[in-house]
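<instruction>
Derive structure tokens from the sequence
<data>
Labelled lines for chain and fold:
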Amino acid sequence: MAGERVLIVEDDPHIGESLGRALEGTGYRATWVSTGAEALAAVAADPVDLVLLDLGLPDADGLDLCRQIHDADPAATVVILTARDEELDIVVGLDAGAVDYITKPFKLAELLARVRAQLRRSDPGRTGTRAVGDLRIDDGARRAWIVEEEIDLRPKEFDLLSRLLRDVGDAVTRETLMADVWDEHWFGSTKTLDFHVAALRRKIDRGDGPSRITTLRGVGYRLERR
């Protein structure tokens, strides 16, 4: 964890400065900027590991900025901070390249847990190619295909698919998915799981057939053997 660079893009000085102090105190290298232009300059000047991005900026549309950051540095993880809490806003934010979405007001402890979860290293021992039906993934290369067509998956979409494939045909609880894909000490809303499942379905399902991922209400999800 120590030394990982976190860019805070927030026009509220109180929030920006408070987050910067909290992240620095946890061992991260935190940089706070208040405009979209400063954010793009910061990303261009030095690679970042994670961006905490406020959508309500004075000089830029936050969703457009999210796309621009993702284009400039595909390896950067973007977590959106916003007062908007409508489901459509959350879906659009995730589609723009964010991996998580935190609504204001938020508890600092929860935000730090989310940051820790997103920056957690992937399991280095998980390698090799696995398949179910015409769906195939390579954990070491972090690539996935349907037949021979490669699927463009964002980091958490790949992690989620890999975890479901580990227990293909079996139910995987929401708690297990949150612990294994996000963080073992996760607390708070699990809505981000549902949005990532929805995004993953759009990429791996055929339009004329049943979903490869079955929702088990009150339990979790199951990747089908088809």
